[in-house]
């Protein structure tokens, strides 16, 4: 029995698992699955697919597989040889980064078809983090160290206030907040609620008001 994680996988991996008779439990996020369908559709329609996202992210690796050799990952330095491209973003991509990529690509192609597959929950989470960081003296960002969207939240917060990326309450050092009157907490999209609740419970115990 094999469980496919929310990021999805390269279709070649799925084919190999089926060929070997594994029972597959596909937990691919519906939004990621939709992005996979769009990439496949664009390829069938003859577009050169450009994926806007982090090249080492598992979701992006999977998306590339649905376009075969007819795709590349966006970078500002890329040399676009095709005049007809289709663009799909990583679902957890920052919306501002996606808009910048689109503006850059539009100057270099004749025809471009865009599918915006960014998860709006991610956008709302970023907006909420900005709201919290503007009110807090320090921030805790809860989530896996390998989570791309959690890392993005951490980078965003630390530009404004002292911020700490943790996976659990056990990692918290009380001295981090010796000069803080208020502590903000946010979390990555895939962080379990119980994990966040544990952090908040710890803070309330250590810093009673």
UniProtKB/TrEMBL annotation:
<dbReference type="GO" id="GO:0019288">
    <property type="term" value="P:isopentenyl diphosphate biosynthetic process, methylerythritol 4-phosphate pathway"/>
</dbReference>
<keyword id="KW-0004">4Fe-4S</keyword>
<dbReference type="GO" id="GO:0050992">
    <property type="term" value="P:dimethylallyl diphosphate biosynthetic process"/>
</dbReference>
<protein>
    <recommendedName>
        <fullName>4-hydroxy-3-methylbut-2-enyl diphosphate reductase</fullName>
    </recommendedName>
</protein>
<keyword id="KW-0479">Metal-binding</keyword>
<dbReference type="Pfam" id="PF02401">
    <property type="entry name" value="LYTB"/>
</dbReference>
<dbReference type="GO" id="GO:0051539">
    <property type="term" value="F:4 iron, 4 sulfur cluster binding"/>
</dbReference>
<dbReference type="InterPro" id="IPR003451">
    <property type="entry name" value="LytB/IspH"/>
</dbReference>
<dbReference type="GO" id="GO:0046872">
    <property type="term" value="F:metal ion binding"/>
</dbReference>
<keyword id="KW-0408">Iron</keyword>
<dbReference type="GO" id="GO:0051745">
    <property type="term" value="F:4-hydroxy-3-methylbut-2-enyl diphosphate reductase activity"/>
</dbReference>
<keyword id="KW-0411">Iron-sulfur</keyword>
């Amino acid at each position: 029995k094999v469980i496919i994680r929310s990021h999805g996988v390269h279709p070649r991996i799925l084919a190999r698992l089926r060929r070997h008779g594994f029972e597959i439990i596909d937990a691919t996020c519906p939004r990621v699955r939709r992005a996979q369908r769009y990439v496949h559709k664009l390829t069938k329609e003859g577009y050169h697919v450009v994926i806007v996202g982090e090249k080492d992210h598992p979701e992006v690796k999977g998306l590339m597989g649905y376009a075969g050799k007819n795709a590349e990952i966006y970078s500002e330095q890329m040399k676009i040889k095709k005049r007809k491209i289709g663009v799909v973003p990583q679902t957890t991509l920052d919306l501002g980064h996606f808009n910048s990529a689109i503006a850059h690509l539009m100057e270099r192609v004749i025809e471009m078809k865009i599918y915006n597959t960014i998860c709006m929950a991610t956008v709302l989470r970023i907006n909420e983090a900005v709201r919290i960081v503007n009110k807090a003296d320090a921030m805790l960002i809860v989530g896996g160290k390998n989570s791309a969207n959690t890392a993005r939240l951490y980078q965003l917060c630390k530009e404004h206030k002292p911020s700490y990326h943790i996976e659990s309450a056990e990692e918290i050092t009380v001295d981090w907040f010796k000069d803080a009157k208020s502590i903000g907490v946010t979390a990555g999209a895939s962080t379990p609620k119980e994990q966040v609740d544990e952090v908040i419970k710890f803070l309330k115990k250590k810093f009673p008001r």
